[in-house]
Amino acid sequence: MGKPTIQITLVTVFLLAGCGGAESKQSTMLKGSLLPQTQGWSVSTNAVVPLDVVTNGRTLTLNTIGVLRNSDQHPKRGIMWFYREVPFHFKFGFTIKFTLKVHEVELPHKINDAGIMFFGSTIDPSGNFTGGPRSQMIFFDENAIGWGDELGMFTMDTTNTFHTYTLAIDHTGLAEVYVDGTLALKRNNWKKIARIGFGDMTNEEGINGRFSIKDIIVTSRTRIPPSRPAPRGLLTQ
């Protein structure tokens, strides 16, 4: 009588890095070593020229504190923010990474108004000068950041050093903001518009600021990441 034989069949599953992952496109939209006007950015402003925008060869510094309004020379109602279309769509989600340091805020933000802000998506401001949706903008005070509509705020010192901010939007419209890798803000139902902006977007009296910003890098997904089934082994007798 022969001995029983147990046949074992092993099924090996190879997972290749990046296989089935989300394809993406990336673009450096702003270099801090150059003025934004020379990099394809447009400006929404009521300020006298020349604008108070300078570079030291590494970072870009913008200021509206004490800047005169061109219509009546009023020193506390200056607007100056830059915007640019992103050369790919945001349909399947995107991330924006930038490094920013607040130097001074004349007066802190109000709901939907900020002297220092970042738009991760904005309409063309040529019709209303402010851009929008303003609820989605990120405001920067000296002691906090938050959404324009104050749906969420995060207490921090924005003036002590350059901080790295990452705005991540997934294909469902979930938006998250990370500060130096720490989750700070979150909201749903993001309105995806492939145009971004930064600066002082309000003519509210005294809501002005001075800040420096380094490179802005945008990464856009070109498709939704597929789900991955867990690897399994097959045992037969």
For the largest beta-sheet, the strand count, sense and barrel status come to: 8 strands, antiparallel
CATH T-level topology:
Jelly Rolls
Q: On the 0-100 scale, what is the average pLDDT?
A: 87
Distance between the termini: 19 Å
Oligomer: single chain
Strand fraction equals 35-45%
Q: What would you report as the Rg, rounded to the nearest angstrom?
A: 23 Å
Number of helices: 0
CATH architecture: Sandwich
Q: What structural class is derived from the secondary structure elements?
A: mainly beta
The number of E-state strands comes to: 15
Low-pLDDT regions = 1-22, 233-237
Order of helices and strands: EEEEEEEEEEEEEEE
Number of domains: 1
CATH class: Mainly Beta
Shape: globular
Helix proportion of residues, in percent? under 10%
Keywords, please?
237 residues, mainly beta, Jelly Rolls, seven-stranded antiparallel beta sheet, 15 strands, disordered N terminus, disordered C terminus
What this model shows, in words?
The chain is mainly beta and about 240 residues long. It has one domain: Sandwich (Jelly Rolls), CATH 2.60.120. The chain has no helices and 15 strands. A hairpin with a 3-residue loop joins strand 8 (about 140) and strand 9 (about 145). Mean pLDDT is about 85; it is low at about 1-20 and about 235.
